[in-house]
Amino acid sequence: MTTNELIMAIETSCDETSVAIVRGGREILSNLVASQIETHEQFGGVVPEIASRQHVEAITITMEKAVAEAGIGLRDLSAIAVTQGPGLVGSLLVGIVAAKSLAMALDLPLIGTHHIAGHIYANRLVQELVYPSVALVVSGGHTELVVLEREGVFRIIGRTRDDAVGEAYDKVARALKFPYPGGPHIDRLALDADDEIELPRAWLETDSYDFSFSGLKSAVLAAINQAQMKGEPPMRAALARGFQASVIDVLVTKALRAVHAEGARQLLLCGGVAANRGLRASLGARCEAEGVPLLVPPLSLCTDNAAMIGAAAHLKWKHGQFSSLDLKGEPMLSLEDWSV
């Protein structure tokens, strides 16, 4: 396989329609994202049926714009990649149907791609990866610690037992009367707060790399209820700071423990919550103190985007592992099984 192949990548796993053209798994020629945040904001979260309809409306024009911005023609493409899962099944299907249609029309290989593999390999769009490495995946639907023993081979050693960290942020933000998405509001308030309300850390078993945020969320709700019963407004800034401090403490501690236990040469921060300034700063400081190289994608590559899908799809391209045209959306697609 060459290193100059052009892959069109399509990402429609949740509420953002994105199409990118990526050369050789590393060079982004275009990366367009049509966001639905304003639509779902009024509902306080993503409404799957509405997300699917908006993907249908946006997918074709986004594909056309991505090709035009890249300055190529459809006949220049080498393959079509698309998020196969995990995600919302209706949203996944829109992207998959579009990808299969174009692959069949152009007689090009189709590459079904794992969404979390995309988040992890977003780091490779900005810096070379070395192995073994550990990835801390933090997003609205996922919180996982993943070991990459070699390129494209994933082993999950820890995952959330209840809420994903991004989900916990949104629920706490809603309780504090912030609009969706709530994570940026909590992050900003926490960084600006003068006081902090100490909240519990869920360390779980001594040797566990798993996470749990439901108890922390309940502690925030309890503090809000106690203030209301006293007829006092909740200390929003102090609660935000306490909540974020608890989340970051657990994430950073377990991630660094995994790095040392696995003999990892890099720590990769991945997913939408990787945009959190508090997490980036704390993880950066801890990694510097312990001599651990840390890779963090730029903000534009932290949230859902198609360039990351193109980067991950390149792993399959190099091994000639293509999907058939009966590819289906798999909301619970296994990362480990997707390994090359």
Helix share, percent:
40-55%
Distance N terminus to C terminus?
Answer: 15 Å
Q: What is the strand arrangement across the widest sheet?
A: 3-2-1-4-5
Counting H and I runs of at least 4 residues, what is the number of helices?
A: 12
CATH homology superfamily of the largest domain: ATPase, nucleotide binding domain
Main β-sheet description:
5 strands, mixed
Order of helices and strands: EEEHHEHEHEEEHHHHEHEHHH
Mean pLDDT: 94
CATH fold-level label of the largest domain: Nucleotidyltransferase, domain 5
Q: State the name of the first-level CATH class of the largest domain.
A: Alpha Beta
Examine the secondary-structure arrangement and name the CATH architecture of the largest domain: 2-Layer Sandwich
Q: What is the number of strand segments?
A: 10
Radius of gyration, taken over Cα atoms and rounded to an integer in Å = 20 Å
Shape: globular
The chain-level structural class is alpha/beta
Total number of domains:
2
Proportion of beta-strand residues: 15-25%
Low-pLDDT runs of 5+ residues are none
